[in-house]
């Protein structure tokens, strides 16, 4: 009864496993075959049991693997054979890969038997090759990137470091592997790096930063970083992926651009200075030459001398303005200034001019006095420049509107006209020295650049909006006291 | 040499500059008309023949060279002298304008008064 039960249990167990199981005797005759083997080989127990192994297993396998010799070795020695790989390729059938082991069964009073365990691992091999192929592909993508791609664990240690990182820093992967990323960054930024990496472990969002990386020669390169949290299958942050771009080239180009902009500005300024200064110089020169002539009328002689004086004053004023623009006053006697009062004072100075040019002045103040920190004469200079520009922009009369209002932190002063407007291509250069000359047709073209300089000195800003359709609007923002 | 009594047009928006040039020319008996914008200049050349024009580089409404080109298109025989402080003698802008015939002479400000008179000989 027990033997029957054991036999049934044994066969049920063999039939249940996915591998093929054969038992042969020392004459290589099949003693037992499980269901999996029979199904795979499309055989029945009756045409398998008792038959020689050579009839049951394809000849090509027997020829290529010497499995028969090995079975006999195991039968003789009683030592099991583990983990043999066997590849089987028959015409018209895809290649199959098997893994087999041989287990001797020695029972006293019986001929030795050998159990052959045959496992089809074709699919596992294919999958692991696929995984390796994908891994190789990903590694080559990361290594081919011109940007640095690194991964860092939650302790801040470097896990991966691609070819671009090796090339840019000079450190190869093995010299930085498992070292602190922090140590690769310039000392000046290490506290920023530490703080951001710590924040990234608790927050989900990506971050950007500019941190210099140290090179093997001790110098550093400025790198723009995009840092993203690296997650495991459960969504838990297990590190950070950092993608960095070397900014050296970009910074160099920015510098070149700034240099060329400076040169362009210098070109404009040189032209402006030449035009503005040589005109009064030419008047002085001609008048002086007239004075060298004999028999001059007294009135003409005086007129010449007067023109010379005016010309010298004009030249000097241009140079003075230029100096003011280049080296703004650093006077620290800034005081509390009643802004509306300064505007009113400035308006009285242009009253006559605006009446002559048929210009209506429209004041929109909210009544209350507004205090700012500043230098009244400088602020007056700014308003004067803006008012005169507005008047010059309305040769056929018009309306000059001055609006003062405030937010919680800032005071706004808007000066608008409904004049000819500024062409859109000139708008962004309107505060550059000498750029306004040909538009306004009068003055030195330094007025708005000085306004800009003074407003900046007052920690404020000045903007312009303009269109030939409705005129121009200058907006000054000053910090509120 | 420009005949005496010939009409000369002076285009410059600097009043004092016009005062000086006018005085140099009227002293030699020439009739000088002064205008200070490109628009006025075009009006003048269309209603009266000016064999000689003195022209500034920067005018409130137009660049001097643009104006010179426009005048030359209509009146190619008009002699235009560029009188300006904006450029220097070998300035590429000036050499190009001279070689293209847009202007016929260049005087840099400040100048010798006789330079203005020498420009009348061509």
Automatic annotation (TrEMBL), chain A:
PROSITE patterns: HIS_KIN, PAC, PAS. It is an enzyme of class 2 (transferase). It catalyses: ATP + protein L-histidine = ADP + protein N-phospho-L-histidine. Pfam families: HATPase_c (PF02518), HisKA (PF00512), PAS_4 (PF08448). Residues 134-204 form the PAS domain. It comes from the Bacteria. InterPro entries: HATPase_C_sf, HATPase_dom, His_kinase_dom, HisK_dim/P_dom, HisK_dim/P_sf, PAC, PAS, PAS-assoc_C. Residues 272-481 form the Histidine kinase domain. Gene3D superfamilies: 1.10.287.130, Histidine kinase-like ATPase, C-terminal domain, PAS domain. Keywords: ATP-binding, Kinase, Nucleotide-binding, Phosphoprotein, Transferase, Two-component regulatory system. Its EC number is 2.7.13.3. Residues 207-259 form the PAC domain. PANTHER family: PEROXIDE STRESS-ACTIVATED HISTIDINE KINASE MAK3 (PTHR43065:SF10), SENSOR HISTIDINE KINASE (PTHR43065). This is histidine kinase.
UniProtKB/TrEMBL annotation, chain B:
PROSITE patterns: RESPONSE_REGULATORY. The keyword DNA repair does not apply. Gene3D superfamilies: 3.40.50.2300. The modification 4-aspartylphosphate is found at residue 56. Keywords: Phosphoprotein. The keyword Ribosomal protein does not apply. Residues 7-122 form the Response regulatory domain. Pfam families: Response_reg (PF00072). This is Response regulator.
């Amino acid at each position: 009864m027990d033997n029957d039960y054991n036999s049934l249990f044994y066969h049920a167990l063999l039939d249940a496993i996915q591998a093929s199981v054969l038992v042969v005797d020392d004459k290589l005759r099949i003693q037992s075959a499980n269901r999996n083997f029979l199904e795979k080989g499309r055989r029945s127990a009756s045409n398998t049991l008792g038959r020689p192994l050579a009839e049951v297993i394809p000849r090509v396998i027997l020829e290529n693997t010497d499995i028969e010799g090995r079975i006999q070795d195991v039968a003789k020695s009683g030592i099991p054979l583990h983990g043999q790989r066997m590849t089987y390729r028959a015409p018209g059938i895809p290649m199959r890969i098997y893994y087999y082991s041989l287990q001797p069964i020695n029972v006293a009073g019986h001929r030795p038997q050998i159990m052959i365990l045959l496992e089809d691992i074709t699919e596992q091999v294919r999958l692991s090759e696929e995984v390796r192929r994908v891994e190789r592909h990903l590694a080559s993508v990361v290594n081919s990137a011109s940007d640095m791609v690194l991964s860092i664990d939650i302790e801040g240690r470097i896990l991966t470091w691609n070819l671009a990182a090796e090339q840019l820093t000079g450190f190869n992967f093995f010299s930085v592997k498992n070292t602190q990323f922090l140590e690769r960054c310039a000392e000046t930024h290490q506290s920023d790096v530490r703080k951001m990496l710590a924040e990234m472990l608790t927050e989900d969002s990506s971050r950007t930063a500019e941190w210099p990386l140290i090179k093997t020669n001790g110098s550093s390169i400025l790198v723009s970083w995009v840092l993203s949290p690296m997650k495991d299958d459960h969504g838990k942050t297990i590190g950070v992926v950092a993608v960095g771009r070397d900014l050296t080239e970009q910074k160099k180009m920015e510098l070149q651009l700034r240099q060329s902009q400076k040169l362009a500005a210098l070109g404009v300024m040189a032209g402006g200075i030449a035009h503005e200064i040589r005109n009064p110089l030419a008047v002085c020169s001609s008048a002086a030459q007239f004075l060298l002539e004999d028999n001059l009328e007294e009135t003409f002689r005086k007129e010449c001398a007067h023109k010379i004086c005016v010309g010298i004053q004009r030249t000097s004023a241009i140079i003075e303005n230029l100096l003011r623009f280049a080296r703004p006053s650093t006077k620290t006697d800034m005081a509390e200034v009643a802004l509306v009062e300064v505007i009113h004072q400035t308006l009285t100075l242009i009253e006559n001019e605006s009446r002559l040019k048929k210009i209506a002045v429209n004041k929109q103040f909210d009544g209350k006095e507004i205090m700012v920190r500043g230098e009244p004469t400088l602020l007056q200079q700014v308003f004067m420049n803006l008012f005169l520009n507005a008047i010059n922009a309305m040769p056929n009369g018009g309306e000059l509107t001055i609006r003062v209002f405030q937010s919680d932190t800032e005071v706004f002063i808007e000066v608008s006209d409904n004049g000819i407007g500024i062409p859109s291509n000139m708008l962004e250069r309107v505060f550059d020295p000498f750029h306004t000359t040909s538009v306004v047709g009068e003055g030195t073209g330094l007025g708005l650049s000085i306004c800009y300089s003074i407003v900046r000195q007052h920690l404020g800003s000045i903007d312009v909006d303009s269109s030939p359709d409705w005129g121009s609007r200058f907006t000054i923002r000053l910090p509120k006291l | 040499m420009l005949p005496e009594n010939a009409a000369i047009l002076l285009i410059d928006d600097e009043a004092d500059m016009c005062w000086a040039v006018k005085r140099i020319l009227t002293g030699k008996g020439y009739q000088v008309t002064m205008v200070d914008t490109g628009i006025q200049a075009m009006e003048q050349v269309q209603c009266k023949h000016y064999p000689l024009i003195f022209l500034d580089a920067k005018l409130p409404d137009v660049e001097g060279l643009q104006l010179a080109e426009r005048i030359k298109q209509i009146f190619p025989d008009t002699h235009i002298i560029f009188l300006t402080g904006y450029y220097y003698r070998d300035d590429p802008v000036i050499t190009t304008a001279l070689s293209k015939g847009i202007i016929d002479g260049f005087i840099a400000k400040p100048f010798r008064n006789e330079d203005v008179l020498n420009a009348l000989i061509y």
